[in-house]
Amino acid sequence: MTPILTKYEGGFRYDFKILETLISEDQKPINRLFLIYFNNKESKDRFFKDPEYIKIKETFFTPSVESNTIISEYERYQ
């Protein structure tokens, strides 16, 4: 993933394995948390549409992840 993220001016900020979630607005269990960033919304949108990313996601992420939760998204004020 990192080379594709880098291609779109993005990267990982944090990656956690979660042992216990004390409070959650979502009923789905959360056992992994990672934060990624992009320099702008256009780069983020291009990343998620990239055929190479989609292939990797379908090969590795989709079969191994029961559910996902987007906790937050924001754009930096310029």
Question: How are the secondary structure elements laid out?
Answer:
Elements: H1 2-7, E1 10-17, E2 32-38, H2 41-49, H3 51-64
Antiparallel strand pairs: 1-2
Shape: globular
Number of beta-strand segments = 2
State the secondary-structure class. alpha+beta
Low-confidence stretches: none
Helix content bin? 25-40%
The share of residues in extended strands comes to: 15-25%
Oligomer: single chain
> Quick check: average pLDDT?
92
Largest sheet report:
2 strands, antiparallel
- N-to-C series of helices and strands: HEEHH
As for the number of domains, it is 1
Q: Report the end-to-end length measured between terminal Cα atoms.
A: 27 Å
Radius of gyration: 14 Å
Summed up, the helix count is 3
Strand order of the largest sheet: 1-2
Task: Briefly characterize the structure.
With 78 residues, the protein is an alpha+beta fold.
What does this structure look like?
This is DUF1330 domain-containing protein. InterPro entries: Dimeric_a/b-barrel (IPR011008). The protein is α+β, with helices and mostly antiparallel strands. It has one domain. It is about 35% helix and about 20% strand. It is built from three helices and two strands. The protein has helices at about 1-5, 40-50, 50-65; strands spanning about 10-15, 30-40. Strands 1-2 form a two-stranded antiparallel sheet. The longest helix has 14 residues, at about 50-65.
